[in-house]
């Protein structure tokens, strides 16, 4: 019998699950004020390793500059901190 059938399988593995590449707000302070941060710009600056993964912005840290951020998903704390800093956020489609 093959090895993969002999090994135990644990838990549930969702075949339709989405894995995001995460970017924290603190990392976005390197961009100048008024910049429009897009997924392509994040990939070009090396914030995201895998080019095929959608990007999710998390609210870890503080945002000190006013930015217009475009990403595939945002956490609730990230949305709050972006608007508090005077910036805007926009959810883009994955396709």
User: Can you count the helices?
Assistant: 3
Oligomer: single chain
CATH architecture of the domain at 26-91: Ribosomal Protein L15, Chain: K, domain 2
pLDDT < 50 runs, ≥5 residues: none
In short:
The protein has 3 helices and 6 strands. It is α/β, with parallel strands linked by helices.
What does this 3D model show about the protein?
The chain has 95 residues and is an alpha/beta fold. The chain has a domain of 66 residues: Ribosomal Protein L15, Chain: K, domain 2. The protein contains 3 helices and 6 strands, in the order αββαβββαβ. The strands form 2 sheets. It has a 3-stranded parallel sheet. The protein has a 3-stranded parallel sheet with strand order 2-4-6. The longest helix is centred in the C-terminal third of the chain and has 9 residues. The termini are far apart. The relative contact order is 0.21. The model has no long low-confidence stretch (mean pLDDT 93).
Structural topology:
Elements (H helix, E strand, L loop, with lengths): L2 H4 L14 E4 L11 E2 L1 H6 L10 E4 L9 E4 L1 E2 L1 H9 L3 E4 L4
Parallel strand pairs: 1-3, 2-4, 3-5, 4-6
Could you name the key traits of this structure?
three-stranded parallel β-sheet; 20% helix; 21% strand; 95 residues; Ribosomal Protein L15, Chain: K, domain 2; alpha/beta
